[in-house]
Amino acid sequence: MNDGWSTHSSHWGAFSARWDGRDIEVAPDAGDPAPSPILGNFTDALRHRARIERPMVRRSWLNKTSEPRTLDGAFVELAWDEVLDLLATELSRVHADHGAAAIFGGSYGWASAGRFHHAQSQIHRFLNVAFGGYVRSVNSYSAGASAVILPHVLGPFEALSRRNVTWEQVSEHTDVVLAFGGMALKNSMVASGGISRHIERDAMRKAAERGAQFYCISPLRDDLPEQAAATWLPIRVGTDVALMLGLAHSLVAENLHDRDLLARYCNGYDKFERYLLGLDDRQPKHAGWASDITGMAAAEIVALARKAAQGRTLVTVSHSLQRAQYGEQPVWMGAVLAAMLGQIGLPGGGYNYALGALGHTGRRVNAVPIPTMPQGRNGVEDFIPVARISDMLLNPGQPFEYNGRTLRYPDIKLVYWAGGNPFHHHQDINRLRRAFNVPQTIVVHETAWTPSARFADIVLPATMTLERDDIGAAATDPRLIAMRKLAPPIGEARDDFDIFAALARRLGVEHPFTEGRDSRQWLAHLYETTRKALAAKGLDAPDFDEFWRRGELALPSEPDDGGFLRAFRDDPDAHKLPTPSGKIEIFSGTIAGFNYADCPGHPTWLPSTEPPSARHPLTLIANQPATRLHSQLDFGRHSQSRKVAGREVVRLNPVDARARGIADGDIVRLFNDRGACLAAAALSGDVAAGVIHLPTGAWYDPQADGDDPALCVHGNPNVLTRDIGTSRLAQGCTGQVSVVECEKYLGQLPPIRTFDPPQPADR
Ligand code: PGD
């Protein structure tokens, strides 16, 4: 494009844009059949007052006065040279006094789509080069439980979720989709690194028009799009495993299970069947049993089992189900149910964990590598499962269990974060506040004054994606995008790379960090891997300048071959699964050997230890938002346009609203023993009775001079969520489900202050 238009990309879509000095005009990629509305958050983001313009340091940290960290603390502006000198000295001090294992650089977060200015890669590379490593985090908030259980029982997480059943196969072959947790378009709209074609909606429409029957098994009807014409099964929250067991039992009762497949391709079905039939605990997991737990009629469960046994059936399990206590179980049981139905590895059938959970799934995988920033080697052994951050900071030296091992939490003195917002993403924010008061120093690079930046000691302004050149790419997207700089950086903001390069210089490791390249040279260098692979295949492989001029480049895909599950199905001896038995582990001797009551040796129904109660009768679903990616650009135009009275919208069923005297648009207070927040009520029959739905991402905004714990006046649900691991196996995030009560808020409405930057204070 010309006339000032430039190609760019984001986790939620490729686009072109131009800047008029104030606002951004955005045009989705012309070839995208269903662009994401959250592109609208860029419009007024570049020069928003929430952006960070200059380096700032918490005054109490600077003056070494021992005040607790708060979001209201005073900040002093410093010149770049001074702040970098200070930070280099502090990093050297911590390293010299306590070693690299006292620096937490896990720094989880999505940051922006470009592959070079990928904040996590930059911070990891810097800490590896400067100090030989750092305490890292493993797994993700997205897939904390599934990433650990799946390799034990089926195979590698990435291959199972990404190279398996494609949307093309669903359109053409699938008869029945049992979508546990649904497949909401707001989730598949997003892919880390970028997405140039949003194909999910049309694929579901095509399948439905062909006669495929989708079942949306979720408390939220809109967890499948209208185009899927789905049957909604709003079972009780967190009871999917009981439904799966009820279905499995019904299959056995009617001899509809695939005995041959279970014998030839699976390990330990006999042990699981004893449990299913209740031979040891005298409780058969029949449809009537499942009905009592799920609230779905027994006859409906039996009918669903029969339907699933008839045609080509696909079982999917969303990330959301495993982001809860015992989240390993639905992931495992989904695979077992699919095995019993006998269709694993067939086109459009079997099991695709997380299909539709992100725009990476259900697509063909690229046949050439994409540019990737090398991170170097981390010599520190200590790590935490990512969602154990508060536990780590609050319990230095204490033991914890993870995946069969007993480990110890390191003693962290310095936390360094770039590209994430823990005060958005972590559970039980009031506990996180206590945890973030433990380290001696907290450093944050941010584009905007997020609550995490407000809670740091040293805050360094980072450019946002639109202010720098980069390359957008994902291993599941057939386009490499030149992300061209659209506007100069705001204030004194710098690229993360330049900040780390300047620190590296002060620490005497500039050349090992930069390898003598500036940003532009790095882009050309990283591009070369992809170019060479294209050239080796005899495909169009322009040099970097030509790619940059064109703005995008087509990448070839692997065939739609069903991945390793198809190969296993075709020949289970030649293509064994990478599990101990080489088969689907319906019983896992490895997991049984860990002796975890919260994750036994085969899929098991384990009810939540925090069920709804008289005091907290509603189940809160705190899932991904539809109006932004996580908390990113919450101040952007699209996100703001969907708020009511400046608050996040909470949906609840009219029956529950009526019982509490709540009307549409009322401001309500959600609360439990961990915290409270305000939100604007929207009554909706698309939310099951007994359920209340408040998505994540509204920036935490504690009431000034409020109670302790403070009321979040904006609607961040993580003040209510539970900070426990899924189980001792995976220790994943459990933020999806909590119990709360809700009431009409009758007090004076507090102002929203979260987007107001701190005013610079005197030293
Ligand atoms: P984001 O809002 O994407 O959230 O948590 P995550 O921390 O990834 O944060 C990214 C931050 O990076 C933003 O503040 C943005 O401004 C900043 N940023 C963007 N570009 C740059 C850059 O170039 N440099 C720097 N330095 N910063 C940049 C998301 C996490 O939340 C995830 S992935 C999931 S799946 C979880 N989901 C849930 C959930 O479903 N329910 C609950 N209750 N809690 C969750 N938390 C988790």
UniProtKB/TrEMBL annotation:
Domain Molybdopterin oxidoreductase N-terminal: 8-47
Superkingdom per UniProt: Bacteria
GO biological process: anaerobic respiration
Domain Molybdopterin oxidoreductase: 51-505
GO molecular function: electron transfer activity; molybdenum ion binding; molybdopterin cofactor binding; oxidoreductase activity
Keywords: Metal-binding, Molybdenum, Oxidoreductase, Periplasm
Any one annotated GO CC term: outer membrane-bounded periplasmic space
Cofactors: Mo-bis(molybdopterin guanine dinucleotide)
Presence of keyword Endoplasmic reticulum: no
Domain Molybdopterin dinucleotide-binding as annotated: residue spans: 618-733
Family statement: Belongs to the prokaryotic molybdopterin-containing oxidoreductase family.
Protein name: Molybdopterin guanine dinucleotide-containing S/N-oxide reductase
Species the sequence originates in: Rhodopseudomonas palustris
